[in-house]
Amino acid sequence: MLRPIRRALLSVSDKTGLVDFARELVTKYGVELIATGGTKKLLADAGLPVKDVAEITKFPEMLDGRVKSLHPAIFAGLLAKRDKPEHMATLAEHQLPEIDLVVCNLYPFEQTVAKPGVTEAEAIENIDIGGPSMVRAAAKNIESVAIATDPIQYSRILKELSSNNGTTSRQFRSQLSASAFARIARYDVAITQYFSRINVDWPLTMFLEFDVSQSLRYGENPHQKAAFYFDSGITSQDRHPSIATAQHLHGKELSYNNILDLDSALNLIREFAGPACVVVKHNNPCGAALAPKLADAFLAAWDGDPQSAFGGILAFNKTLDADTASALMDPKAKRFIECVIAPDYEPHALDALKKWKENVRLLKTGELVGGPQGLDYRRVDGGLLVQTRDTGADKPDEWKCVTKRQPTEAEFAALHFAWFVCKHVKSNAIVLTSPTREQGIATVGVGAGQMSRVDSVQIAVKKAGERVKGSTLASDAFFPFRDNVDAAAAAGVTAIIQPGGSVKDADSIAACDEHGIAMLFTGVRHFRH
User: Fold this and answer.
1) pLDDT tens digits along 238-270
2) Is 252 a catalytic residue?
3) pTM above 0.90?
4) Judging by DSSP bridges, how do beta strands 312-316 and 276-281 pair with one another?
5) What is the rounded distance in angstroms from the CA atom of residue 213 to the CA atom of residue 474?
6) Which residues are registered as beta bridge partners of 4?
7) ∠ CA 22-25-27 to the nearest 5 degrees?
C-alpha cells in the first residue's frame, strides 16, 4: 500500500544531514515542513520554507521547551487512519493537517549520563517526553505514516521516494516502524538503568540489548546453532577496539570458536605497551612475547609452544609490518594459523598475507586504546551472573617482596610480564617466562585449567623443557602448600610472583628462602573460569 508524503514534522537533537534531507523533500517532492524550536530555526536559516509547530497547535511553546508538540493538533494528524472516513471527517471538522512523515531523534540522554560528573538535574532535563510520544504515534500508524529516528535513514527514505514516485510502501514503513520502537525501547531502558544505578549498587532489573551481527555456521560444536550479536550501546562515536568493531579484511567467515579465541587474544595483547605477540588456542595463551621488534616478538611467542600454536590465533598490538609477515609465512615453518588480529597492517604485509593463505582470517582493530568496556556477563541455567571487568586492580609499585632475596631487575621484568599473561590463563594457571636473545621476554611454559595447582606447575615445567632453568613463574592464585615452590625449585625456577593470602603463606615463603628463590606478593587474585 503506497502512501504519499505531503507533510513532514521535524524535531531533532542530532541535526546531522537534516538540511540536505529537508531540502530534497521540499524541492523534489513538494513536502510541507513543520518543525519545533531549534530545528525550525536551522531550516529557516538554510532558506527552506518551514512552519513553526505553534502555527499548527495555535499554542505557544512553554515551560522552557518542556511542552511544545504535545497537542491534539499534532497527534490527531499522526494517528488518524487515512482509510477510515470518520477519522478524516474529524480532521476536516477541526481543520487539522495530516502528517505523513515524522523525523525525530531524541534528547541525548545516553550521551549526557555518560559524561563524568553529570548531575541528576542535568540527566532529568535530557529526558525527552514529546519526542518519544511522536515517534510512538507515527510508528503505530504504520498504514499511513513513515518515521525516521536516525540520520542514517535519510538516504534510505529518499531512495524509497525516488523508486515509488514520492510514496512509501507498507513494507518500508514497517521497517522504519520496527526501528523506531527499538529506539524507544533502548531510550527507556537507558533511563531506567540510570535511575537504578544512582539508587542501588545493581539495577533491580537487568535490561540487555544486542543487535544481530551475523549468523554463524554452527556453535561450539557442529550440532549447535549460533549467531553473533554486538552491543547496541556501541555508537559511531564509541567504537572502541573489539571483536565486534574489528574490520574483517580477508579470509573465511569467523566461527563461534574463532570469536571466543580472538576476544581472549585481544584482551591479553592490550595489556602490553611495547611490541608484543600472543598465540591463543582454546581460549588460553600458549605463547606470548615482548621484543623490541614485532617480528622477534612473534617468533618468540610461537616458539613458546609451537606444537600447541598449530591452528591458533595470533594477536599483535602494533601495526603488522613486512618483516613480521615474512617471519609468519616462512615456508620452512609450515605454520597453520586460523586468524590474525592487529591494529593495522602495512600495505605490503597485508598483500602478502592475503596471497599466502586464501582462508586465513585477517582482522584490523584500529589503535588499541583502553581495555574491554562494559560489564562481564555469564549465563547460567535459570539466571545471569554479572560482574565488573577484571581490569585496573594491579599496582606493580605496591607489589611486596616477601623473601630474603630480592628479584633482580631482569627477574622483575620477567615476573611482570608473566603476571599479566597469567591473568588471561584458565585457572588453575601457571606461567613460566624467560628473557629472549632479542632482549625481550617470552613464555616458555603454560599450565592451564587444572584442578590441582601443582599439576599446573608440572605441566608448565614439562612444556618448558630445558628452558625452565632460570625461568620465572607466575600463579594466578595463592599456593595452598609449599609443594608448588618445591616443584618449581627442582625444575630450576629462580623467582615467583603470586597473590599471597593463603593461611600457609609462611610455608611457601620458607620454601623459597630454602631454595634461594625471590618471591613477590601482588595482593590481587586473577581467577579465570
Assistant:
1) 568 899 999 999 999 999 999 999 999 999 999
2) no
3) no
4) antiparallel
5) 38
6) 167
7) 105
